[in-house]
Amino acid sequence: MRFRLVLFNIVAVAVAVLAIALEARQEHTRAMPDVHLMTLDPGHFHAALVQKEMYPGVLPRVDVFAPLGNDLYEHLKRIDGFNRRAERPTTWDTELHASPDCFERMLRERPGNVVVLSGRNRGKIDRVLASVKAGLHVLADKPWILRSGGLPMIEEALAEADKRAVVAYDIMTERFEITSVLQRALVNDAATFGEIVKGTEGEPAVYMESVHNLMKVVAGAPNIRPPWFFDTAEQGEGFNDIGTHLVDLVQWTLVPDQAIDYRADVRVRSAQRWPTRILEADFRRVTNEPRFPKALASSISDGKLEYYCNTLVSYELRGIHTKLSVMWDWEAPPGSGDTHFAFYRGSRARVEARQTEADRYRPELYVIPANAASAPQVLAAVQAKLRSLQSEYPGVAVEQRGRELHVLIPDVFRVGHEAHFAQVTTRFLQYLRNRSTLPAWERANMLAKYYVTTKGTELSREIPPRPAPRLAPK
Asked: For the purposes of burial, counting CB atoms within 10 Å of the CB of 134, is it exposed (0-12), middle (13-18) or buried (19 or more)?
């Protein structure tokens, strides 16, 4: 009997020790980073902006696979700047793998489980697809493709991601801009907006105008662009690139949380393009190259580079006429920067985001009632809608400015474009850790988005170049 009791006690102690050890192991596992980033050939500054902040559960070490050259140098310089800044410095540790066969080497060595892609756009979808087939998660900057012939490869990449239980996601930062978030909420509030006015090609229901600048400051320093950025066969044209954000915002706002079938729901009607002409001295300033490279010789006319980065595209989304304009200027006026103008026309009101000198070029949101008689009801509806958003966006309010209603946005929500990359990355990490939270409509809507950007770009080449007027208020 005494032997059985001793044996029982020994077993009980062993079980208790085992349980403590198991719990400690689980706690250790929970504390260990589950994400290890690999940055591939970072030719665009967006790759660095993913690392502007640190993330829980992400290993501080990032393996960078790239050929030696200025693109790599500029990337490392930005990461070093984040680590050295005075406020909230990051603690990234870069492990560099420099070689001409950087992509093949990354797939062989695979020190991490997430590929960050931002740079050369020609062939980007090949790298996305191969990475997914290798069982790697992919966070890739836009655009994934430059031609409509690449749509089947996007479809294949997303299907492979499903098959291998990984996440392939593109960086749609504009969904996190507070004016876009509130614009979406008000457009989908029937009491404020009414029903969408389907419009015509000449008088669209939706209009967006995005103006970017070739010479700009990023992360506190002048943004030096690689020469290949000005090769549209490598970088794409304006609508290939910036157009992805605009098309994404239209879909995300007009048909929230719904899958779009681009074959049935989308019709690209017309498009036009025109160049921004760049002097060689300006090209030298933005690239640090002494002269125009030979690869751009066919685009040089009268000593200037004709850079086809401006496009206007009209299309229908489920019968709703939409017009999108993408433009690149050389440099913004003092105090300004890249600007965004967007309106949606409803039967009760128009909801408009704009950046003007009067508002110090800050993004602001306005609601313009369709007529004076309904203005009091529209004001009451906006107030009610904003009250319903207080738990998520405390302090948003509305004030009357003549016949317009101005949405007041607390500064805490005005984080700026660069901060949106951390917000996208945080969302991506959520999907990576629980793939069931990735919305099913994202796949179909990604195909629809790239159908519009590629078809619009291709259609714009069929007519002689001509500039489109700017409709955004100054």
From this structure: middle
pLDDT at 13 over 70: no
Q: How far is residue 462's CA from residue 460's CA, in Å, rounded to a whole number?
A: 5
Distances (CA, A) of 392 to 110, 178, 181, 257: 39, 12, 11, 19
Question: Which ranges constitute the DSSP H helices of 300-434?
Answer: 375-388, 417-433
Q: Which residues contact 23 (CB under 8 A, 6 or more apart)?
A: none
- Give the number of C-alpha atoms closer than 13 A to the C-alpha of residue 332, restricted to the C-beta side: 18
Q: How many CB atoms lie within 10 A of CB 376?
A: 10
3-class SS of residue 242: coil
Distance CA 241, CA 262 (A): 19
The predicted pLDDT at position 32 comes to 63
Is residue 410 within 8 Å of residue 395, measured between CB atoms?
A: yes
* H-run or E-run covering 405: strand 404-408
Q: What are 292-303's pLDDT values in tens digits? A: 999 999 999 999
- Phi, psi for residue 70 in degrees, rounded to 5: -65, -35
Quote the pTM value.
0.92
**Selected residue with higher pLDDT from 161 and 8:** 161
Q: 170-211, pLDDT tens digit by residue?
A: 999 999 999 999 999 999 999 999 999 999 999 999 999 999
Distance (Å, whole) CA 43 – CA 57: 26
